[in-house]
């Protein structure tokens, strides 16, 4: 029997899902003193949904940051020689942001090397239903202090309790494809936002659709994660109707494609788009017809508002 192996985003026509971590290295606002040589980090989680799945439950056990604490300034090319976690990684990004993709997984959690030191944040370990977070809704994932310095990588450790829910009666295990739970993400300088009060913020785009593989009746997870910043990318928002069309929104520029599923009232938002001109397609369910708007301009640090779209039969 031939084995069917496909990536969810292509074979099952699921959308690209984004998981956004906003990492804010802030002054302590709770009244506690941040120790010298440390910085406070808060991690927020945001997601856009995937059609044809009711839930994607991801078991998150640890979130860590790798920080270069040295006094010598290095450009991003210096950290290209940091190959920790490169085994089996794709390093290509997911096509939604600036291509700073995850670098794979290694066999263990190392504490550091000449490129920086790892520091662990405080989280509530357990299952996170990514599909409950969409269109800009955030939840606090992790918080704590870390070494002061330049954040160069993020490492996420996944547990074994991952699963997908197809409908109210069908839940399937979501194993890790290669059995290695450590997910590494490069954080270049252009993926870091500087905000007020000495804070920095980093966002991660977790492409769920292209991270889930369907192999001979089983699901497995091979995470594809990309870092981006609000300052260096843009966003598109708008409204599409009627609700009966069950539209899927796709923004395409060359090989880059981003997806969104509108809210009940038709609102949608696409984030982490590199500055460019996009073709935005609204793929409808029959008997409604698809519609495309070309030359939608996206600018760094700005939000592009599209006119309302009504799909017709």
Condensed summary:
By secondary structure, the protein is mostly beta strands.
Element layout with pairings:
Elements lengths: L4 E3 H4 L7 E8 L11 E10 L7 E14 L43 E2 L2 E5 L1 E2 L2 E4 L8 E10 L2 E9 L4 E5 L2 E7 L5 E5 L5 E4 L3 E8 L5 E4 L2 E4 L3 E4 L5 E8 L6 E6 L2 E5 L6 E7 L2 E8 L7 E8 L4 E3 L3 E2 L3
Parallel strand pairs: 12-17, 19-25, 19-26
Antiparallel strand pairs: 1-16, 2-3, 3-9, 4-6, 4-8, 4-10, 4-11, 5-6, 7-9, 10-13, 11-12, 14-15, 15-18, 16-17, 19-22, 20-21, 20-23, 23-24
How many helices in DSSP terms? 1
**What best-fitting shape do the alpha-carbon axes yield?**
globular
Our Rg estimate from Cα atoms comes to 20 Å
- Secondary structure: helix percent: under 10%
What is the residue-mean pLDDT, rounded to a whole number?
80
Biggest sheet record? 11 strands, mixed
User: In angstroms, what separates the terminal alpha carbons?
Assistant: 42 Å
How many strands?
Answer: 26
Helix and strand pattern = EHEEEEEEEEEEEEEEEEEEEEEEEEE
